[in-house]
Amino acid sequence: MPDMPELAASFTAALHDAGIAVGPDRTRSFARALTLLEPSTTRELRHCALATLVSDREQIEPFDAVFREVFGGPADRGAQRGQPGDPARSLPDAVPGRVPGSRKATADGRGREADTPPREAPVPLAASPLDRLANRDFADLSAEELARLSEVMRTIVLRTPTRLSRRRRTAHHGARIDVRRTLSVSRRTGGYPLRLRRFVPRARPRDLIVLCDISGSMEPYARAMLQLLYCAVRAAHAEVFTFATRLTRLTPALRRAGPDDALARAGRAAPDWSGGTRIAECLAEFNERFGRRGMAHGAVVAIISDGWDTGAPADLATHMARLSRVAYRVVWVNPRTASPRYRPLVAGMAAALPYCDAVVSAHNLAALDDFTAALSAPRHRR
């Protein structure tokens, strides 16, 4: 039987490439189902995958296509009714990637298993099991594990709450009358507006802004989080800044970079990597150059830092108060809060805490669920 975590990571990565949204939570559910049920046939494996990875009827067809490509399963639903002991649908015993032989159509049009030996299918396997990566602290991961982590992070979707834009769309039960469209349509009825046209504002996701601490105390976590921020820039059109002794806008570098050289470009763009920490000064620069110009107005702002600051706590509190007045929601990501013995005794963290809507750890892959939930939650002031 192949390694279940590797099997789950490989299959869910193929589903994501096919356009099916499969996050780390669904991947973990699929891995648990494989471990508990230990399916021995492709039919049982397909049922496990359907129950944990598919959430919509429209996803079944592309799901089956990926399943056939990876495991060589039958193409039609009727073929799924085979006996559990059918060797043509049995899972491989030793080599991950070995799948049953293909089906050939006979003259009467009915499918029959061909008398061909099993074939090898190119199934991509993760070097590190997903369960081991999911609960390991980002600071303890090697460079190879960080590279594998980026493959999983590409499946994570960062969503923000919606806001009403100035654009509008036609609606049958809108609260406001679209006078221009009503008059335009009334020309068909001799100028009499027999039917009122209405509209409602369009809803669009709020902007996402991330400020990531790359000082010496945050370097191990910053390398892992930048993998996620690279995906956020591409998918959610987020704005990413790094700070240590200075503020650097990293969005252009991440947009042009590929997944393999994102960290290299980030290091070249931010010369203060692994330096000291001046959170208050960098936050003041952000408020002055970007926040007041409208970038932070109504946006969700995430600050990734452990709170160590060489400046005065009163200055950080002042600039956090300015940011909280214009931002829709402020989420502080502090990996140190994962420890049960953590207390906000650091002066910088204590000064910023009253102006945060949520504080999460995001110190490992499993804890990223709390981070994504905090970004999409409605506004709530402490």
From TrEMBL:
Domain of life, per lineage: Bacteria
Gene3D superfamilies: von Willebrand factor, type A domain
Residues of the VWFA domain: 205-373
InterPro entries listed in its UniProt record: UCP010256, Uncharacterised_CoxE, VWF_A, vWFA_dom_sf
Biased composition (Basic and acidic residues): 105-118
Region Disordered, annotated ranges: 74-127
SUPFAM superfamilies given in the database record: vWA-like (SSF53300)
A Pfam family annotated for this UniProt entry: VWA_CoxE
Protein name: VWFA domain-containing protein
